[in-house]
Amino acid sequence: DIQMTQSPPTLSASVGDRVTMTCRASQSISNWVAWYQVKPGKAPKLLIYKASSLQGEVPSRFSGSGSGTEFSLTISSLQPDDFATYYCQQYNSFHLTFGGGTKVELK
Amino acid sequence: QVHLVESGGGVVQPGGSLRLSCVGSGFTFRTYDMHWVRQAPGKGLEWVAFIRFDGSSEEYADSVKGRFTISKDNSKGTLFLHMSSLRPADTAVYYCAKHRPVPDWGQGTVVTVSS
Lengths: 107, 115
What we know:
The complex is a heterodimer of chains A (107) and B (115). Helix content of chain A is 0%, strand content 50%. Chain A is mainly β. In chain A, the strands form two sheets. In chain A, strands 2, 4, 5, 6, 9, 10 and 11 form a seven-stranded mixed beta sheet that branches. Helix content of chain B is 0%, strand content 49%.
């Protein structure tokens, strides 16, 4: 299976900060990467698909980039509603795999 | 707008069975490959099973192989997950999800395996 290594596990930041988290795939996956925001008791919310496409009504402060094996999610100006855990997912393969998550917490 | 609505979760004893359903709307269900994914309490996301758009092939995580069966009724726009020989480790929120190009997910259904 394709391994997704996500970093950092925890990210401490303040409102207004620019934050970036990364995912590295164990083999090339083209641009078949999605990013999700997960809050306790809620379903994962799709933010980014195909590495850089913004989903639906997701705010434009979220952006994704990368291709091949290196991917990143950036929040340009952190808002109070953004404190959550974020997961990357590869869907190049039918065997979906996920990163271990990045918890964004208040500094 | 894509909607995926799961149902069928509940509390079941170890060794028991359960069938989950996922109704899809807002997209051409019969043309999409689909997945089941789960999240156990306090854990990360875990892929469970995959089925081709026409039901012609299936794939399973090793943790559920031989116990879970995924199926798809394109005439009813519904995805299923039949779970048997359930274990406490199967306790999780179960989500159905579309495959490429946009991996939309449903809101999930809770499965608790406990005596």
